[in-house]
Amino acid sequence: MLLNLKECKICFPIFQKHPNLVYLDSASSTQTPQTVLDAVNDYYINYRANIHRGLYDLSGTATQKYEEARKTVGKFISASSKEIVFTSGTTHGLNLLASGVQNTLQPGDNIVLTEMEHHANLIPWQKIAKKKGMELRFIPMNREQRTGNSYELGVSDIENLIDEKTKIVSFTLVSNTLGTINPAEEIIARAKKIGAITIVDAAQAMAHMPIDVKILDCDFMVFSGHKMYGPTGIGVLYGKKERLEALEPFFYGGDMVRSVSYEDATWADVPEKFEGGTPNIAGAIGLGAAVEFIQSTGFDKIQNHETQLTNKLINQLNSIPDARIIGLNSEEKRIGVVSFLLKDIHPHDVAEILNRDQVCVRTGHHCTMPLMKKLGLPGTVRASVGIYNTEDDIDKLFASLARVMAVFK
Amino acid sequence: MKQTDPIYKEMILYLYKNPLNKKQLADFDCSHKEYNPSCGDEIEIMIKFDESGKIIDIGHQGEGCAVSQAAVSLLTEEVKGKSKEEVMSLTEEEMINMLEIPISHTRSKCALLGLKTILFCFDRPSNKTN
């Protein structure tokens, strides 16, 4: 266990390979600790076999480790392992849900999302809404007099937007563009009152705050391994058992059936019903190791560390007259995903110069094009922190931003 | 930053701040708006041809980074007086060469957005007057 997060970088081999790397793009994808790499390698080197199939020992070990990972992930969010479906990522989970619930939807029903959704929690619902003749509704951001936008959802709008015709309420717990933590309890409470299915996109939250699905009381939750120090290509769909049982499968094929004739088939129990085909076994095992990595560090330490870095980021941006934060201006109700603009310099040009100093940030619309349009911006520069970042990283970012301003003076 | 790196040399920055042909045409034969979804850039091109099919006026609108704005400035100058066929024979390499700076793989979409927009524009006759 790490006593001091300042030394956390040594757990991540990429920083040994690139000692001057300033990685501030964890919201896009986090780096991978050695323990996760070891777990993935261990599978490929020591017990590589398919799961749920072979009678031989190797397959037994692989199955056991895969199912252990499911338990680890379940415990992490206070769910039973039967409620954990391994997916390829958040996008897969949301497409699975949109497809799986469609038979319960009628013309005239509505789906409620927010103005902050990532395209992954927007486009699948657009398709279903068009197909079913349903209305899409968006919980808007509060208007604020001074800057126009508050970058927070208007809680007072929830009551009216979610009505008796609302069948699905699907929203992001943390905005990947603004960093805002959304009022999940209020949204879910209102949705439950009228019996709508609630879906939480927790992709951006998982590595940064403790999440308990029993407290949230959502019906479904989706997230990705690669944003929480796990491998790419693995993610999770959590669902309350009865909700998962009522859902149609998404992939049909091997390993998701109970019995099959030439004419028909019946489905395996949850969660296997949703895991047709050979899953990402190494990825699931790696995700289990990533969860253990987060747990061994502890969220109290993670949050304390990341809040300090977020504060430093925000304070230093506020000290530059030409910088403008696109998001909440304090560490309250937000995580360390900080979007900003520098004068009228195009975000792409900012990132190009930062890259020359080995400072990695994301630019563009962050897969939230409607939100950017609403804010009237072509895009933003987004710096996002992870467990391995240090105050030195933030200093290097600002030294590089000073060079950007010198070029575009 | 490597001081020798020429991507933000004077010409590019000058064209970014003083773009050429950045105007709305009152009368045009075709127009098209194209996006670079990876960085949020958008460029709209309007073209007016003369009776012999040569471009007599071209305007662009939209927002973009220094590289895409400089590229569309240079390109709109380059295509004036040319026919559709002549413009269509322009290669991506020729476009990048106009900028006279090395363009990395990640920035090639910025450099080529204007050319892509013009080529799409040819297929979108509008006969509109603003």
Would you kindly provide a brief summary of this structure?
The complex is a heterodimer of chains A (409) and B (130). Chain A has 409 residues and is α/β, with parallel strands linked by helices.
Instruction: Kindly provide the radius of gyration of chain B, computed on alpha-carbon positions and rounded to a whole number of angstroms.
Output: 14 Å
Strand content of chain B: 15-25%
CATH domain class of the largest domain in chain A: Alpha Beta
Helix content of chain B: 25-40%
The total of helices of chain A stands at: 14
Average predicted confidence as pLDDT of chain A: 94
Large-scale geometry of chain A:
globular
Distance between termini of chain A?
47 Å
How would you name the CATH homologous superfamily of the largest domain in chain A? Type I PLP-dependent aspartate aminotransferase-like (Major domain)
Number of domains as seen in the coordinates of chain B: 1
Q: What is the alpha-carbon Rg of chain A in Å?
A: 22 Å
Unreliable spans of chain B: none
CATH level 3 topology of the largest domain in chain A: Aspartate Aminotransferase, domain 2
And the CATH topology of chain B? Sufe protein. Chain: A
Largest sheet of chain A: 7 strands, mixed
Largest sheet of chain B: 3 strands, antiparallel
**Which architecture of chain B does the CATH hierarchy give at level 2?**
Alpha-Beta Complex
Anisotropy-based shape of chain B: globular
Question: For the terminal residues of chain B, how far apart are their CA atoms?
Answer: 45 Å
CATH class descriptor of chain B: Alpha Beta
